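Quick start: read one record
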Amino acid sequence: MKFFVVMLLGLSVLFGAVDINTASKKELTGLNGIGVTKAEAIISYRKANCFKNIKELVNVKGIGSKTVEKNMSNLLVSPCKK
């Protein structure tokens, strides 16, 4: 399992994927349609709720399914550590 996680993280660096469970505000604002306010909302949401899949982003206030769809190829979700 650890090997798989390391491989995913390695691939994310190569292809620029953003892990929504660990990304910084700066990394999140690099996504299409995500500004500072939405990045802060994602960080606040994940402090209380760990993302289990990318589609859970729609649970964050201000983020809709179109935003998630636009960024789908640039996102990944690491296993929850809570």
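Residues 2-15 form the longest helix (14 residues).
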